[in-house]
Amino acid sequence: MTETPRIEHERHSANGVDFEVLTCGSGPLALCLHGFPDTAHSWRHLLPELASAGFRAVAPFMRGYAPTSVAPNGAYQTAALATDANALHDVLEGDEHAVIIGHDWGAPATYGAAILEPHRWARVVGMSVPPWNVFGTAFLTNQDQIQRSWYMFFFQHPLSDHIVSSNDMAFIDRLWSQWSPGFDGIEDARRVKEALTDPAHLSAALGYYRATIGQGYRDPALADAQTAMQTETPTQPVLYLHGETDGCIGVELARDADSRKPSNARVVIVEKAGHFLQLEQPRRVNELIVDWVTAG
Hints:
Layout: E1 8-14, E2 17-24, E3 29-33, H1 46-52, E4 56-60, H2 78-91, E5 99-103, H3 106-116, E6 123-127, H4 134-141, H5 143-148, H6 150-154, H7 159-179, H8 186-196, H9 199-213, H10 223-231, E7 238-243, H11 251-260, E8 265-270, H12 277-280, H13 282-293
Parallel strand pairs: 3-4, 3-5, 5-6, 6-7, 7-8
Antiparallel strand pairs: 1-2, 2-4
Helix pairs in contact: 2-3, 3-10, 7-8
């Protein structure tokens, strides 16, 4: 009987941030980036499968999510997340065979890393936030999606820090239940709360939204990178996965992504899964991802 590869903790500094990472296996780098409200533990089913497929699978706690440090300059724009990924590629001794996988906020970070430094990443997987400017279009034209995205506007108000942190962060529990209907995310929500207990870390997590549609700090040094991420698309083979019952970003956006996809891409809608599809349907999602990153 083959023993399941063990997940271990490591600490690495990259791009001015001290990252706590979960790591499993050895071989070419497979970097897995989580979103909100989530942690690196969301990849616990995938990491051993990637390790068994011959990868060194690594899932960092993203900047601002304890035990990773907050950003020293307060930058939480997507270009900062993408440059974090590329800096981690260096620190973790990745090569041209490395692959990158991202969910929620980790998805635009993944696309951005692949766009900014394509020589680092052989294949790309995004989940729950589609590429090809699908979400940007829906954010302006799709009334159902605008309603689903109400929390993004709410996070712009400074009172949101206090409201999200109140009542044992019940707000986090509610998002999990709404975004993945019928899935028991209590344990994962608990880990999110641990990561965001410190007000500085909670402010960092909300800062992702403030840097995107609000007045949050944007590093001027990343202006060109941010523009490239918004106007270009990954040239590597791209797999996009979306949960059929996603309560955060509607499945119609995945269908729109499918209609827009370039020839180097594939879109798969995962049945009986919501926003956190890697936890709700791990066997199916693991199979799709491992098959994609080992192809060719």
